[in-house]
């Protein structure tokens, strides 16, 4: 390939949507406990958390919050549930949630626990709001995230992202972490993280829960660089109050393979009444062997197909060999799916590439942007490594059309046919 290719970097042009944490020492605002209980014995295939309204007893208690989130809390508790329970604090809200320590839906490995990351009763004041809330992790020991489950209470959510941060972008209970802050907004504006964030998980379009492969986990807390998890929710419409979030399935048992997520994304525009291909490609310039295992695509309503590839150049002939990692219609539920070939490895010097096929049937030009009236071209790739080392740069970005093309801008050849 004759022309240079961009390294795997996260340019500032696409990173304004990042920012994060806040201290959660003000735990005295807890007023009551909401208790729920799963009833798998009722013949319901998908176990539901059903509230019980018959109080069994009440007492005033003080106890540690658990190993995943540090600290203690004292408050009156009204217990409504029979059985063995474990209490986890819902940071920023006025009540903790109590749920069974085993997780019926995901059937994760033995010894796991669950913790909810939920928005603290936020009230988006305007359409297309991006709000963030931060959750400090246990700094004394490593924890390993092995699964994710959406816990949603709003019909107005466009997407949810969980970021890993060394420090959050704000100390507020919730803050505006979008690109376009409102001067009259209720929430202060800050980035997701104080420094470069790690993308841990993303949800949209009614995607179901995700359980990582056996032995694979995201390492957080303890000696890791991720000391806070930040929950970002994109609300399409203003609403009174929301506590949506993501349930984290985790363990303190070390896992042999460390997971990470990288994002390939583009800028660009789509002309009126026009079909367009948005392309991005970056060289892996770090000495890390990646084992991709899952992918996720994301566009808005104009996306027709999104695909990702690993590209390796033959050193003798200069011919590029393209290996499909995954391809999906973005109008389907935007879940993480297994990559097409689980034996693929990506090494230093290889290229990661993605392409979004768009169709604009409107009379206006559509640009890449943060709102539902704009578009996005995102390809998320989850991978694992054997030695615990992951990519320092977790984002690949291109300016998109009409400026950027695989062949002219990245020097790629034998590119996949456009369909």
UniProtKB/TrEMBL annotation:
Record key words, sorted: Copper, Disulfide bond, Glycoprotein, Metal-binding, Monooxygenase, Oxidoreductase, Secreted, Signal
Cofactor: Cu(2+)
Residue pairs linked by disulfide bridges in the UniProt entry: 132-177, 165-193, 282-396, 356-377
Entry annotated with the keyword Thylakoid: no
Co-factor: note: Binds 2 Cu(2+) ions per subunit.
Catalytic reaction annotation: a [peptide]-C-terminal glycine + 2 L-ascorbate + O2 = a [peptide]-C-terminal (2S)-2-hydroxyglycine + 2 monodehydro-L-ascorbate radical + H2O
Main location: secreted
Annotated InterPro entries: Cu2_ascorb_mOase-like_C, Cu2_ascorb_mOase_CS-2, Cu2_ascorb_mOase_N, Cu2_ascorb_mOase_N_sf, Cu2_monoox_C, PHM/PAL, PHM/PNGase_F_dom_sf
Membrane-spanning intervals of the chain: none
Protein name: peptidylglycine monooxygenase
Organism: Heterodera trifolii
Lineage: Eukaryota, Metazoa, Ecdysozoa, Nematoda, Chromadorea
